[in-house]
Amino acid sequence: MIRFDHVSKRYSNGFEALKSLNFSIDAGEMVFLTGHSGAGKSTLLKLIMAMEHPSRGQVFVNGSNLTRMPDSQIPYHRRQVSVVFQNHQLLFDRSVFDNVALPLVIAGYAASDIAKRVRAALDKVGLLHKENRLPLELSGGEQQRVGIARAVVNKPKILLADEPTGNLDPELSAEIMDLFRQFNEVGVTMLIASHDIDLLKRQNKRVLALSEGELRADMAPANAGAVH
Ligand code: ADP
Ligand code: ADP
């Protein structure tokens, strides 16, 4: 579903953020991406989103070579691959419903279809009863769940998350992980960047460890406890 073939990323200032990465992630896997701040986690996720392009090598996502993808295909690509951010990136002057509806509005869905899908997504994250609230009326954990509902509302094949529990306490973080596992169990391929090692040890999933832009380890679930 995702394959990096000798991928390097050098930013325009000359800094090499990723160095010749090789790995692949199968459809239906749930994988954690770890490493210290600055290791290259966000850059790797941006390459999968086609928000940045590799300087060398090829990135394949869902059967397409992103290096060769024409710009006209990128909106379609971004409907297959959704992302959850640490700071939610919610619109604070719009209701919960409108925030979750946004990707569908942009994609041009009919209003009746939007209402049905938004409510289904809010139901999955347990926030159907708060659809008319503004984000600031919700707790941090609830805001993150709105961000997740928005990311899954168009039923992506791949869900990426960049430090999705960065601002949450351990109990709320565990709830967010449970939600991710539920999406994964219905077939969504997941890649979750997190430097919270205790959290990802408890998940017992495959772990890719980056260090200074290099892939230092690719650990099977049974070995995930050895991450340090
Ligand atoms: P471009 O590739 O368009 O020339 P840059 O790579 O210089 O642009 O920067 C793109 C964005 O990333 C800018 O908003 C810039 O502020 C930000 N940026 C630049 N350097 C860094 C850095 N070391 N870490 C994080 N963000 C950076
Ligand atoms: P992480 O998500 O693991 O913290 P990042 O992918 O954000 O790592 O950053 C990796 C390295 O690349 C950092 O040293 C960062 O400063 C640098 N970097 C990130 N974005 C840019 C940019 N646009 N231009 C230049 N350097 C950048």
Explain this structure to me?
Keywords: ATP-binding, Cell cycle, Cell division, Cell membrane, Membrane, Nucleotide-binding. GO terms for molecular function: ATP binding. Residues 2-228 form the ABC transporter domain. It contains seven helices and ten strands. The longest helix has 16 residues, at 170-185. The chain has helices spanning 41-48, 74-80, 96-107, 111-124, 140-152, 170-185, 197-203; strands at residues 2-10, 16-25, 30-34, 56-61, 64-65, 81-85, 158-162, 189-193, 206-211, 214-219. The strands form two sheets. It has a six-stranded mixed sheet with strand order 6-7-8-3-9-10, with helices on both faces. Strands 2-1-4-5 form a four-stranded antiparallel sheet, with helices on one face. The mean pLDDT is 93. The chain has 228 residues and is of the alpha/beta class. The two termini are 27 Å apart. Strand 1 (2-10) and strand 2 (16-25) form a beta hairpin. The radius of gyration is 17 Å and the shape is globular. Bound molecules: adenosine-5'-diphosphate (2 copies). Residues 11, 13, 15, 17, 35, 37-43 line the site of one adenosine-5'-diphosphate.
Which descriptors apply to this entry?
228 residues, alpha/beta, 4-stranded antiparallel beta sheet, 7 helices, globular, AAA+_ATPase, cell membrane, cell division
- The helix count comes to 7
Helicity level = 25-40%
What is the gyration radius calculated from CA atoms?
A: 17 Å
Distance between the termini: 27 Å
The helix/strand class is: alpha/beta
- The dominant shape is globular
Main beta sheet? 6 strands, mixed
Order of helices and strands: EEEHEEHEHHHEHEHEE
Mean pLDDT: 93
Q: How large is the share of residues in beta strands? A: 25-35%
The spatial strand order of the largest sheet comes to 6-7-8-3-9-10
SS elements, strand count: 10
Bound small molecules, by name, code or SMILES, are: adenosine-5'-diphosphate
Query: Which stretches are poorly predicted, pLDDT < 50 over at least 5 residues?
Result: none
